[in-house]
Structures are given as C-alpha cells and as structure tokens.
Amino acid sequence: MRQPINTLYGSDETGLICGYVFSPEGIHPLSSNAASLWLQNTDNQTNSFIWLHFNLSHSACEKWLHQYLNLSPIFYEALHEGTRSSRIEYVDDSLIAVINDVVFDFSVDATDVATLYLSVSQHVVVSARVKPLVSIDRLRAAVKQGEQLSSTVDLLVHLLRDQADVMTQIARDVARHVDHIEDTLLSNRLDIHRANLGNLRRLLLRLQRLLAPEPSALFRLLSRPPRWMIEDDTVNLRQSTEEFSTVLRDMSALQERIKLLQEEIAAHINEQNNRSLFVLSTVTVLALPINLTASLLGMNVGGIPLANNHAGFWLIILLVATLTCIAVWFAFGHKND
C-alpha cells in the first residue's frame, strides 16, 4: 500500500509550489534549495528525474528558473505570450507544452480557463501556472499519495489523461443541462431561454479550441519522438492523444445536439408567433365592418341614411352582422374547403 508523502502546501520564497524527485527508491519531496543542489549534481540524474511546479505570480520564479535551469528560450517566450491553444512541440531536446486547463472554481463559464506551461526533458519536468488549475492539482495529489511514475513523459501523459478526465466531466455537466432543456421542450413547457443553449455551445467551442492539443504538433512528435523517449512512453502518449480525440468527438456531437435543440426551439417559437399573428389578423378582419360602419355613421355631416327612420338602428345592426358573417366566411370558410 502506498504511503502518503508529507509536503508543504503553497509556494515558497522562490515561487516553488511543490517539488518531487522520482527514483528507484521512491518519491521524495524537494524544497527549492534541495532542488538546486540536485540539479547541480549530475550524478543524481542517472536513474531519477525531478518535477518542479511553480507559481508564476511570484516575482522570484523566473529568476530562479534562469539561475538553476537551462530551459529553452521557447519556454520563456511561451510564458509571456498569454493564453493560446494547447500545443506540445519538441524544441532544443525538450518537450515544450502549453496546456489550457479549467480553474478550481469552474462554473460552466468559458472564461474560467487558464494556462499551464511545461518543459519536459529526460530528467527534469518544470510546470508553471498563474492560477490554480484542476488537472495539475490532480497530478500533484496522485504523486503526493505515492503514485510512481517511470519517466518524465509518463508524468506528462498522466497530466494529459487528467485533463481528458476534466473535459469529460465538463461534457457530462453540459449534457445534463441539455437533457433538462430537452425534457422541458418535449413536455411542451417552453419556459427556457435560448441564451442558455447559446452559452453552453460557446463554452464547448472555446474549450475545444483551447484545451485540445494541436493535431499536427502531436503527429510530428509521435512520428519523430525525442531520442531519450522510450517506446512505452510513445505508446502511452499516443493512447492519451486518442483519449483526447474521443472526448473532442463527444463534445462535437454535443454541439450538434445543442444546435438541433436551438433550431427546434426557434421553430416552436416561430409557430407560436405565427399563431398569435393569425389570431390578431382574424380579430382585425372581423372588427373591420363594425369599425367602418361606425366611422361612416359617426361623421357630423348631413344626409346620413336612416337618421329619421325609427328602425334605423336595427337595420344598421343587421347590415353589420351580415358583413361580419361574410368576413367570417372569407376567413374560415375557404380554409375548411
């Protein structure tokens, strides 16, 4: 049974949130001082590797990285690019990954997405973020509980699978919302707003665009992996890519389902509007004879017919009733025929 590993929570004076060394003897937590000593002693890197996770909001973070680590300039460029689509590329004998993930207080809002930056080499994994993210914290919890990882790429694969699990959970939450709206529509209780579906659809589109790794970059990586990447890591990375593809297909299907619901709701609303317009038009036509007659007889001019006839009122009523019946026949008689 794996034993939990005690470590400090939060970042230290260098911005290090957590650090671990993975060796055949097990997993051990590292402070920033211990990590700097490990990096300076190349003998430690024979059968082991370390993972260092940093908080980019700490001012001393980048300074420590420049001082003790020889990371690719592409990694530092990515730190200042802002949020972009997720990607993994092989540069300067290391894997540079930009992974977008959801924050802890994610509430089905497309704005609750932040970026995680990684540099993965044969013996060192560096991850950095500004906001707390769900997937990386799942990985940290697994390592804290003693889950052994065989290599740096194995750690990256674990992270990608955690992210796929997060995306799957989001898709399930959105599907529950859509199920509720669909049930409401089928029960003819159209008390929903089309904006709800629009927000869900925009959320899925944004998550697909941000969270999904670039297929071309992954294809290049898998076809020409780094020389230090073993075959098992390549297979695991390919499997995690396939899991991502499955989640993306589910999201695409969910988007299509939302689109069909939007069209159905729009058609239902148009039908109600057409029915209301028909009733309004019918009432207007039926009221036309009496309005026209009242307007003519209400003019203060001489020569108004039947003005001196004691039966004039009833004759006008008969005329209006006759004209109304003719209007009713024109409105409904042709429709019945």
TrEMBL record:
List the top taxonomic levels of the source: Bacteria, Pseudomonadati, Pseudomonadota, Gammaproteobacteria, Moraxellales
Q: Where are the transmembrane segments?
A: 277-299, 311-332
Where is it mainly found?
membrane
The UniProt entry lists membrane topology as: Multi-pass membrane protein
Record-given protein name: Zinc transporter
- What species does this protein belong to? Agitococcus lubricus
> Which segments of the protein form a coiled coil according to its record?
244-271
The record's subcellular location field reads: Cell membrane
What family name appears in the similarity comment?
Belongs to the CorA metal ion transporter (MIT) (TC 1.A.35) family.
In terms of superkingdom, the source organism counts as Bacteria
